[in-house]
Amino acid sequence: MPKKIYINCAKSSSDTSTDSNLKIIHVEEEKVGEELIPELPLHDKLNASAIISITSVGYDETIGASIISTVGFHMQASFGAKFSKRILNTWHELTYSASQSVKDNDLNKREPQMMAKAVFNEIAKLRSTVTPGKDQSKKSLERLFETLSDQAAQPITRYLTSLIDSTNPGLKDVYERRYTTETKSDSHYVKRSSLFLDFFASTMQNPQGMALILFIVGRPPPLCTIRVGNAGVFDDSFEELISGMDDNFNTVTPFNLLQEENSTLLRCVDSGGTAKRVWLEEYWSDGMFKEGDKVRAFLPKNSSEMDEFHISNKSGAVILNPSSVVGVNRISNGHFCTRKSVLMEIFKGFDKPGLKTQVGIIAHKMFQRAVKESISDEDTLRKMILEISKNVEFVQNQYYYDIDPVALNSELQSFVKAIAKFVQNFLSNRNPLPGVVPSTVIDRVLAVEEEMISEKFGFRGSIDMTMGVKVDADQKSTLMPFELKTGKVSQYGDHIAQVMLYCLLLSSNNHESCERGLLYYCGGDELKAVDTKMNELNGLLRMRNEVTYYLHRFFDDPEACDLLLPGPIKNMKICRQCPQMLNCCLRQKICDEAFIRDSPWDAMLEAELWHLNKEHVQYVNRWTTWLRMEGTEERMRGRRNSNIDYDEEEEHSTEECGIAMSVQQFKENSRVLTLAPLSNVNLIQMFSPYDQVLLNGIGERTLPIFATIITVELQQIDVQFSRCCEFMHSCDFLVRRVKTKPFFDSTITTVYRLMASNTIANRKRQLIIDLDEPHFRISLCSEIVQKMKLFCKGLNAEQKSAIVKTMLADDYVLIKGFPGSGKSSAVIALIRTFISNGNSVLVCAYTNSAVDHILLKLKTHITDILRLGPSFIVHPDIRQFTLEAIFANKEPRLDEVAEILSSTLLVGCTCTTATMHPLLRKRTFNLCIIDEATLATEAMSIGPLLAAEKFVLVGDPLQLKPLVQSERARKQGMDISLFSKLEQKYPDAVLVSATSRFCDLKLFKLKFLNNAQFREICKLSNQMFYNGELVAANDEVANAFLNVTVDDDVAEEPWVRRCLSSLPEHAVVFLDTSNCKDNSATRQGIAHVENKLEVDLVVKLCQTFSKSGLDDDEIGVMSIFKTQVECIRRSLKSSGSNGIEVNTVDQYQGKDKDVIIVSFVWTKELKRKLNTTCHLLKNARRVNVALTRARKKLILVGHYNDLKADNPVFENLHNILSETQIFPVML
Question: How many domains are contained in the chain?
Fold first, then answer.
């Protein structure tokens, strides 16, 4: 229920005695008090009465809303973005209430007071106009500076100065230079714009300053959330869409929705606090809007003078959830089958590209190059076909999709004459001839295959070519999108729709009107001009809303269990050929229990699913629900872990704030760009490897570029592009992270692929879903036995048993082993045995490092290896086995590429790669091995298994489980790996390796009395996790100990000497930092945690071990926090210790080193700031991994008292460690 809040309207803050001084407003109850102020950077949590006090500061009935505006601005700058958005919801209702109470006063006569509101309005306008580096930015900044210098606005200026000075003194100089310089030249404002960027980038780590910057930096029209009693932030600036639509549109904020029979009413408030009524009519009123949706409304110009207006087919537009970015093809094809457009956005990889697709891709490249280089000679074009077709990617596709190279070449040759004629007729340096488009001349080519996002309209597309075109000799060059089609003329208008949407994309991104695009059918040599039309664009935007409506329910609303889809077209001929047929039928059956009907189309659906039983359909629905839950939680955690104070009411398709960066290095051959920030910011806190980013040139007329981050360091990132641009190395960029769907795409695809009707999928369903018992043969032929004996030399009885059992298996074997039990050795011998018999093996793991770990051990025995995946993520010593490396210096021939792809006996990749890679759709392996299988979810494991006849899962169920962030999905069983599921059902299929590099304490006393050092390392996990079952693998392992030279000059500090000690009781050392100064961890966002003191201790230890004779590859460093890992890496690199592996605990699973150093990072100071404990360190499996990686010396670094407080895992560790093993560091 809405709750009343009383606002003090007295002329003085102390005069609150009379009821007449109180104004009443209503807000949602959950928006009041504690909920209203979740995380204040500068203030304790406030109650409702305190909020009243803040909102009434300076309030005077003779001034009214203007001072409330000022107060609202103070709150925005003071409390941070997340809180300020919520408080401003209330503030706008305050503004509206106050305006009504003083509506008879002439506020315009009160110039000094109104200047405060003028400042606010100027800032609001900047939010939709500032683009750093553009002329418009300079003018807008100039207006803002001049306004802030006015005497009436000095209170705000003083407040901002004190805010910056108190929160980050380093920003004061930048601030003062920007606001106090009096020069008005154009060059000066260019400099001011640059300083503004510096100020902006430097302030990103500052929640208080961040709020201010978020308010000033230019953004698209603000979003609004439809919710009763809740008005959002907005501005009153007009926006031009494109010529042909109503010229100007105003953005308003709905706070209430009323659905009527033929229309939808949105009750809104504009920036002046005036109530507006927006009627959605005709196809805008189809019921797709609901409370909680985010809406961007474009209203006719002069709407500020009206209280009620209508959006219909002829006037205005509404964008539903613009943060959901939909592809242009999904919109343009949606008119034919909206259901297919939605399904193709959810389920990727079901369509199989054929000859026409390959012809289209190569023809596009040929045409684009011919136009850019003005090539009209037919012989040159024919040579170009051969040159492009020899690209290794195209040659691979010919193998993957069974494309006949002769047919491919014949199809491409048919386009030569048309391309030559086009270049001759329409390029500016030729003699233009009249065509379908009269006297058309292509003046210049601005971009090729340009990927663009319209944040305003919520869609994205890749434009074949962006051109400057002259129509008629006396006209200037006009920006136009150019779309090339190599197929037939479409009868459905989808090609024309594409071009119109591309016009909208260009208009949205370049701030200038693009009224026309060009559509060229190369096969028919036909060029068409496509003009944008208001009603057709509205229809496309409405289709975009419909596709978004269903996608939003799927990806962002896990409570929507029904997952309704658009209705099927029920065209028997077309549906049978649709690549989404199986998924379409499954979703229909799941959503409609009584879906069997008498019509031919319904009978066809039933026939499509005849091979699936009820459990199979339930399995699909269960995993679909879990993955949706996990995707939602992943996005929410991404917001909470952001280093900025994320505004939950203002979600866009790209991160709100980009980072200004300069080019450090450009590797053209690999299309890799090295970028460094222009200001001192921590990039690790903002980006992660494999993030998609959008780059906008600063100070250049460039179109946005999409790229993928390869590596991230504190002050540097490497990004890779799908194509090269001429200006890449010549300008600075504003880099923003693009929000994408989670791992969802590939994982959900494998679940639905498991439902296919083929031999392998049928058997895997029986094993995974029906839990049929695995089958084993009785005996092996003598030849296999002899080869097996050869490769099993040196293995123990349990390892040999694992190999024999796998050779006898028809379905699967599980190899379960303790840490260091020789699982890897058994796997290596198994792979060698299989390959020696001419069998093919697919090796997979959850991480790239785990895959490479196995291949590194095999490469000395096997040279017939193929490593799938981008070369930059592969270990340097394994890169030679990637296709990229194999064909780096030679021309790829189809027969040679096909031989490698089809006949290489050992192929390695991650589980994620296996789910989508076309090779694994084409080829079936004799055996699939998934190492560290307990790390992968069941759904993630399915992809590799569908590519093999039988499989082996290797793992330790007592170590890390699959990482599932959604608590609901986790409680329902999503974090149970396939290994654990099968182990529980069929323990006879499990081969247990009880031996280990560790030993059982009782057996140790009997057999290995001479190695008390090893006992100490073993004791921790043996008592904490394994109930004393660990047994040493052999005498060599049991008797291993650390033997280093201790030099007093190298090891002066007592804690260093203790770590170098070879005494048995010092095999495990816990360096306690409790008594050190500056021992607290720091954070920027919940997930970005680091501890500088521990970094220094770890680096000191690594340097000392190296000087004492240990090789770098014998030392390992780990932490649970990625930021800490990167800080240690950077410090070690600076000290010259590049060979020491530093990684997260999760990445270290399956590896071991002689010396392991663990940095725990966490301190109670973080607990106080975040009001939470560290759940990662409460995970016993993760701690188990950390404690079981060391062979000879285990060093733990952390604040001992803080770690064991309220943490059962560390309490248990405390009970096992002796007093001599806990060593205090005094610094």
Answer: 7
